[in-house]
Design goal:
Layout lengths: L3 E2 L14 H5 L1 H7 L15 H8 L8 H6 L17 H4 L15 H4 L9 E6 L5 E4 H7 L3 E8 L4 E11 H8 L7 E6 L19 E5 H5 L4 E6 L2 E2 L9 E3 L12 E7 L6 H5 L23 E4 L5 E3 L7 H4 L5
Parallel strand pairs: 1-13, 2-11, 5-12
Antiparallel strand pairs: 2-3, 4-5, 5-8, 6-7, 6-11, 8-9, 8-10, 12-13
The protein binds ligand MTE.
Amino acid sequence: MAHIHIPKGWELPESDVTPESVFMNRREFLKAAGFLGAAGMALTACAPGESQVLEHRPEVNLTPLEKTLYPAKRNVRYKIDSKVSPESLAANYNNFYEFSEIKDDVAHHARALPTRGWTLEVEGLVNKPQTFTMDDLLKLAPLEERFYHLRCVEAWAMVVPWTGFPLKALLDRVEPKNEATYVEFVSFYMPFSAQGQLAFWQPWPYTEALTVKEAMNELTLMATGIYGHPLPKQHGAPIRLVVPWKYGFKSIKSVAKIRLTDYGPPTFWNSVLPAEYGFVANVNPNVPHPRWAQTKEKMLGSSEIRYTQMYNGYGDFVGGLYT
Ligand code: MTE
């Protein structure tokens, strides 16, 4: 029978957290262990996912600005009660339907996403609409590392070390008007690079939305990095949303536009399958799902099965939003 872990609080001994140096030195380790040939030929003999991570590590090609920013200092206010999930697992088990419906194929196909020269346009009900370059965004607020629980509606979970800044810092810069009540997020539309977008019957580009209050919550993060380096493409490079108290599909990847509105905008999965994917989509073990039981979750990379917590355990931060 599966082991059930009931969390007793947000405590994790620092010794349980895999140190950054372990993530950063895997290539050196594999080399020393003889897995990488002199000319890198042995890479092709690795499992496909493993070789992709090693060959396409974004930290290898950091811009001069990024070199000064990564790895960012961890903000210990956000505690976790599990180990950080291994990077090799998180980087090869992705939902990114623009590229593939098969999780371990995403990293390979997402390499086609052109991210150079990326801009993020913020428009709608704001006093100062603006288009930001990635350098603008990286300088907007101090980058910090936060360890967050990620809970997918498919009943699996991970603990991920994101790097980013609070969405509030970006919204403050554009000054939302008083009548703005929702924030819409729009990803890219590039069907020639993203084969999934050739499915013309689906409402591409991928969109998501939050209320302005949710967007301004301190937990809501714009992530530019993960595991101490810039985001690899399969995780939503160059910038994505992270909303840890909601199911993973709300955390939209590769955000190209943000629009402030006075109505609840349609969102991708809610439009495709409204009976399965709600608009609010707070993690809630008491709301059943037609396909996946929501009372428990499988921690990826371990045999641990946990009871799912209301708001994914972040009730102290967000419970007040829903009273
Ligand atoms: N964003 C876009 N643009 N396209 C997607 O298919 N999938 C979502 C979310 N963001 C998705 C997306 C889902 S279902 C999940 S669980 C998370 O991304 C997974 O993030 P990860 O692959 O970085 O772990």
